[in-house]
Amino acid sequence: MSGGDSQPIYLDNAATTRVDERVLAAMLPFFTEKFANPSSREHGPGRKAGGAVEAAREQAAALIGARPGEIIFTSGATESINLALKGVAWAALGQGRPAHIVISAIEHNAVRDCCKALERHGVAITIVPVDGEGRVDPDTVSAALHADTVLISVMAANNEIGTVQPVAQIAQIARARGIPFHSDATQAAGKIPLDMAAGPDLLSFSAHKMHGPKGAGALYIRSTRPRLEITPLLHGGGQERDLRPGTLNVPAIVGFGAACGLAGTGMESDMARVAGLRELLERSLLEGCPGARINGAGAARLPGITSLTLPGTDRDLLLARLPELAMASGSACLSSQGKPSHVLRAIGLDDGAARATLRLSLGRFTSRDEIERAARLIGAEAAAQALSARRGAS
């Protein structure tokens, strides 16, 4: 870096994104002069705050091809996932029915840990595998279903390798069997088109993955009959159709809506530019790092995520030696655990290959100059480590 105050090149947009200045501008009035409680509909300020929430609900719904009344605001995708999975399972258990949930082997820990908690309460969990590219086979999902299955949960796109899943095909299977289908769209929303007309019955997404604020998310719940039975996690207040009570975080919700609006209108141009930068980064590193490979390269992937295995390198050492770059080994939620990624294991990587794997994720504000500089830095460090490894082996 050129100076002590220089900002590193940010390549961890899959963990979180910088808030767009237009989103921040939309939020700021709701911290100050527009501070009223949106549930206070007896007076003008409360009604204005409530109107802002409903406008944001319309923006969030438009992004995924849903109806505004099908959007429940939450604190983020993790809460949305818990409301979907626990809510459906608890409703079944409360009616005295056994409950079985099917998930994929590469789900985010928000889904995995939720299922582990449900297992302790008697819910059966089946984990279906993925292929070497990280794709879920819809036929494998179908084969895992049985009479007690109350929910399928397969993410729309993976947070570590970017693989896009066959959500529409799984949705067809779920509807034919009369089983609700949930999809974690935390990484996909705002990056690829989503249309709930042919999609899942429940969908979780979050603002801070699309240049909105942290602490705001939503759960889409299909409104068509038969009505989905969901037991709320919280009680009291009646907000959000009694499914998520509590005073609404109006500034964050307004920011979420603004982020959804910007993502929807700029998706095609933004993602084409980001995909071009990702291709430049991948091409540069494949040329400069002998033996390098892209995980999930044979599948449809999100435009802004690349997972690169650089043989002969130590990922942690590489990260430590390149403070000029803000990048990660994988999911931010797992970075403190020091364990090999379950996603990389699921696609067949051994522990050695996993330790040589980086996740680089781009966003709206990533520039070509940053990508070119990052490729040079990573390539040089990877080459130095590979040379050192060869010398040590000789």
Characteristic key phrases:
12% strand, 394 residues, Aspartate Aminotransferase, domain 2, Aspartate Aminotransferase, domain 1, globular, alpha/beta, three-stranded antiparallel sheet, single chain, 2 domains
Could you tell me the mean pLDDT?
94
Q: Let me know the CATH homologous superfamily of the largest domain.
A: Type I PLP-dependent aspartate aminotransferase-like (Major domain)
Assign a percent range to the helix content: 25-40%
Order of strands across the biggest sheet? 2-8-7-6-5-3-4
> How much of the residues is beta strand, in percent?
5-15%
How would you sum up the major sheet? 7 strands, mixed
Categorize the overall geometry.
globular
Kindly name the structural category. Answer: alpha/beta
Number of strands: 12
Q: Note poorly predicted spans.
A: none
| Total separate domains | 2
Overall CATH architecture of the largest domain: 3-Layer(aba) Sandwich
Elements, N to C (H/E): EHHEHEHEHEHEEEHEEHEHHEH
